[in-house]
Model the fold of this input.
Amino acid sequence: MKENIIPHDYQISVNDRRQLNGHNSFLIWFTGLSGSGKSTIANVVEQKLFQQGIKTYTLDGDNIRKGINNDLTFSPEDRTENIRRIAETANLMVDAGLVVLAAFVSPYKKDRENIKSIVKDVNFVEVYVNTSIEECERRDVKGLYKKARAGEIKNMTGISAPYEAPENPDIEILTEIESLEIASNRIVDFINQKLKP
Done:
């Protein structure tokens, strides 16, 4: 039935919204293992941008899985669909003129490439939160690694499912040697260049 979908031509464009906001809109995608610090870093970056008067919104694995994607499992196919839906949601928010921060494990390169094609390369900033599996397991903030090791969780990224690290991220954060403040400032410095309309 896709042939019956005809987009309506609205008068307010993404450029109009960006001009009204006084800044560009785009997606900052945080990828890394569970427990790597993605959400923590995204939260601090959003606070810093908010203090600068930037209109933002954060999408996070837990709030998405409880709502729009509560019908999906953690199988490879459902992980792909999870990321696709998030990318489409983020794309609408970018069109609305927001700087969107998204913190998701997103373990597959092909899925992250698909995000780029949905939001357009120019609107995509990839932040690789690089934390070793040993450190993530030591932190085990949500107790997921312990459950995975006990066989209670299947398809746990880094344990029984692969994580394909980004080869050329826009920013790579090494959480085991960089403080939260340094990491978030590095991201904000990079973002400030993209914010100029």
Remarks:
- Helices lie at 14-21, 38-51, 61-66, 76-95, 109-119, 133-139, 144-149, 180-195.
- The first helix runs from residue 14 to 21.
